[in-house]
Design goal:
The complex is a heterodimer of chains A (201) and B (418). With 201 residues, chain A is mainly alpha-helical. Chain A folds into 2 domains: 95 residues, Alpha-helical ferredoxin (Fumarate Reductase Iron-sulfur Protein, Chain B, domain 2, Orthogonal Bundle); 86 residues, no CATH class. Chain A is built from 14 helices and no strands. The longest helix of chain A has 19 residues. Chain A is globular, with a radius of gyration of 19 Å. Chain A starts with 13 loop residues before the first helix and ends with a helix. Chain B is of the alpha/beta class. Chain B has 3 domains: 168 residues, FAD/NAD(P)-binding domain; 54 residues, no CATH class; 157 residues, 3-Layer(bba) Sandwich (FAD/NAD(P)-binding domain), CATH 3.50.50. Chain B contains 9 helices and 22 strands. Chain B has a 5-stranded parallel sheet with strand order 3-2-1-11-22, covered by helices on one side. In chain B, strands 13-20-14-15-16 form a 5-stranded parallel sheet. In chain B, strands 4-5-10 form a 3-stranded antiparallel sheet, with no helix packed on it. In chain B, helix 7 links the parallel strand 14 and strand 15. In chain B, helix 1 runs parallel beside helix 3 and helix 6 runs parallel beside helix 7. Chain B is globular, with a radius of gyration of 23 Å. Classes of the chains: A mainly alpha (201), B alpha/beta (418). Chains A and B meet through helix 3 and helix 4 of A and strand 18 of B.
């Protein structure tokens, strides 16, 4: 996929048009009438910096950098309340998730530094490598993304929880659990990447 | 230009303000008219208003004039409790099968009300949208046309039915009436089948079904009417108390692809009227209007401006996402204010949903018509002639204009050779 264009001024629609054409559900986003149902339906609407409705207006206003640096695209909990209620049938959830992908791909600093991006990358590493999420490794990898100091600090702070999980057999010690055909899984993922590149290339 | 072979009679289906207008306009131009109405009385949705635009008249006023025109015309035959079951033929030569339901009261009824005095069974009152009940022998409303009682079929064949029959001093009650049907030959048909309020129960996030203090705009009209369930006092349905805070929610169903994909056009001004009703009755009441965009159209802009100057009427740019049950089951309106980005949850004594207009075709009681759009509105083009809200969401004055135009089209249809 080509990188998104950077608007040259306020209300330059270059970025908005790119989103309409390239982001999953972006074509429906063009129909947004700014009613506020999405942000009002959101269980964490008050915690997001902008909320989906305002974010969509920011896309139209050409505020690309602020959009890609927004925490709204990372904090969506995929409850789909907004998608069900949206009077224009805008698939808000898809759009937010795909914008998060765009932000990472284009190397937005705020996006890369966000908690959810760090955790998502650790989660995906484990899922792709083992076909399972190994709590220890995902957590360790996530903590490691903050550097050695951050790793130690977070590890110490959560020691008690970890021990409790081991005791109640919610977290195991030993080799990571794997699916049987990790080689087959790798082929499936490679194929998926190929299809994605073909569809969005 | 003449049509010697075909029928010159014009059928108008629907006896609301549009159908009545089309019928009297055609009759006064010298054409025979058959007016078919589904309910026991003419007047339609306008009769159920407290007041209507553009001049905030009571419906009795506009209906009175039109009823006079019907009575004075020898060319109009009115069939109430009748629906169109089948249409065959084409312009100039239609055969229409009309189905009638039993009224159980003959035309010699004097509307004295003796039958209602002996009736005991209570039935849901459609005039008040089911907010109260009426006796099983009832006059549909004070401005009924024809001014004739109805006996509900549920009491036919019961001792109560016999008592009702015996109470009638002119022998007008006939409990043996059954459903009937007959054919009429007409040259043109004007569909003035009107609308129904979009069912508020479908708007699950707005809790109309389970929160008593959430009502619809049409229910609000009845609450404000002197002949309504509360004798014109706007009160909370749950406890009859005067509301101190009222929320009016626009686009409840309209402009929503999950419900009505179009703007119903009338609701913004109707809600302005409701804000005025509340403020007239309660000097201390606060009214909040929740809207996406106000689409109160041009000629009544001054009415909107008057309300905007009222410090106790606030306009909040937001489509509420949901209504929750708060203390004492009172509605709490939740959403995002799109100008300030505040996420609000505000309790109200009374919430009024501005539900939109859905064409009656959606109720599925109509014969198959060719020119119906995806929402059920009837095209004005081609052989099907439509008037008023059957053609699209219109207010009363636009419906009347549309009905006059429809009468002209019908006249042209029956006077042109085929």
């Amino acid at each position: 996929m080509s990188a998104s264009p950077t608007p040259t001024g306020a209300y330059d629609l270059a970025f908005a048009r790119w989103v309409y054409a390239n982001v999953d559900g972006g074509d429906r986003m063009a129909l947004c009438m700014q009613c506020g149902t999405c942000s009002g339906s959101c269980p964490i609407g008050a915690q997001m910096d902008h909320g989906p409705r305002k974010l969509f207006m920011m896309i139209r206003a050409g505020l690309k950098d602020q959009v890609l640096a927004s925490d709204t695209i990372w904090n969506c909990v995929s409850c789909y309340n907004c998608v069900v209620r949206c009077p224009r049938k805008v698939p808000v959830t898809y759009i937010l998730h795909d914008l998060a992908t765009v932000a990472l791909r284009e190397g937005n600093a705020a996006a890369k530094a966000s908690d959810n991006a760090r955790f998502g990358s650790a989660f995906w590493w484990s899922a792709a490598k083992y076909g399972r999420t190994d709590e220890r490794l995902v957590t360790a990898k996530y903590y490691w993304s903050f550097g050695l100091g951050g790793f130690i600090k977070r590890g110490m702070a959560n020691q008690k929880i970890a021990m409790g999980m081991v005791k109640t057999k919610r977290m195991h010690i030993g080799m990571p659990h794997k699916v049987k055909g990790t080689g087959e899984l790798a082929k499936i993922l490679a194929k998926a990447a190929e299809i994605e590149a073909r569809n969005h290339g | 230009m003449t049509n010697p072979s075909g029928s010159r009679t014009i059928m108008v289906v629907g006896g609301g303000i549009s159908g009545i207008t089309a019928a009297v306009e055609a009759a006064e131009a010298g054409f025979d008219v058959v007016l078919i109405e589904k309910t026991p009385t003419l007047g339609g949705r306008v009769a159920q208003m407290n007041r209507y635009f553009p001049k905030l008249c009571h419906p009795t006023c506009g209906l009175e004039i039109n009823y006079q025109r019907i009575k004075k015309s020898k060319r109009i035959s009115v069939y109430t409790m009748s629906t169109v079951a089948k249409v065959a033929g084409k312009t100039g030569g239609y055969t229409v099968t009309v189905k009638t339901k039993p009224r159980h009261v003959k035309p010699n009824c004097t509307a004295c009300g003796d039958c209602a005095k002996v009736a005991e069974t209570e039935v849901a009152n459609p005039f008040n949208y089911g907010m109260n009940t009426v006796k099983a022998a009832y006059l549909p409303h004070g401005m009924a046309f024809p001014m004739r009682y109805v006996v509900d079929p549920s009491v036919a064949g019961t001792p109560e039915g016999e008592a009702i029959k015996a109470a009638c001093t002119v022998g007008a009650v006939d409990l043996d009436q059954t459903e009937d049907s007959f054919d009429l030959q007409v040259g043109a048909i004007v569909w003035a089948t009107g609308w129904r309020p979009y069912p508020a129960a479908n708007l699950t996030a707005y809790r109309w079904s389970d929160l008593p203090n959430v009502v619809t705009n049409v229910e609000m009209e009845r609450l404000a009417s002197v002949d309504g369930p509360t004798k014109g006092k706007i009160v909370r349905p749950s406890d009859g108390a005067a509301p101190k805070t009222v929320a009016l929610i626009q686009c409840a169903g309209s402009r929503d692809l999950n419900h009505l994909g179009y703007c119903s056009r009338i609701c913004c001004l109707a809600s302005m009227k409701h804000a005025a009703y509340v403020r007239e009755q309660y000097a201390d009441a606060q009214v909040d209007v929740y809207y996406i965009d106000l689409r109160a159209h041009d000629k009544l802009e001054s009415f909107v401006q008057r309300l905007k100057r009222d410090p106790q009427v606030a306009f909040i740019k937001s489509k509420p996402s949901r209504i929750e049950a708060g203390e004492n089951g009172n509605p709490v309106v939740c959403g995002e204010n799109t100008l300030t980005r505040e996420i609000y949850a505000k309790p109200y004594d009374l919430v009024v949903l501005a539900t939109g207009m859905q064409p009656s075709v959606a109720e599925g009681e109509m014969p198959d018509l060719g020119g119906v759009d995806e929402y059920g509105f009837i095209f004005a083009e081609g052989e099907d002639i439509s008037a008023g809200v059957a053609a699209g969401p219109l207010d009363v004055s636009m419906s009347v204009q549309s009905a006059t135009a429809a009468a002209c089209k019908a006249i042209r249809a029956v006077t042109t050779a085929h």
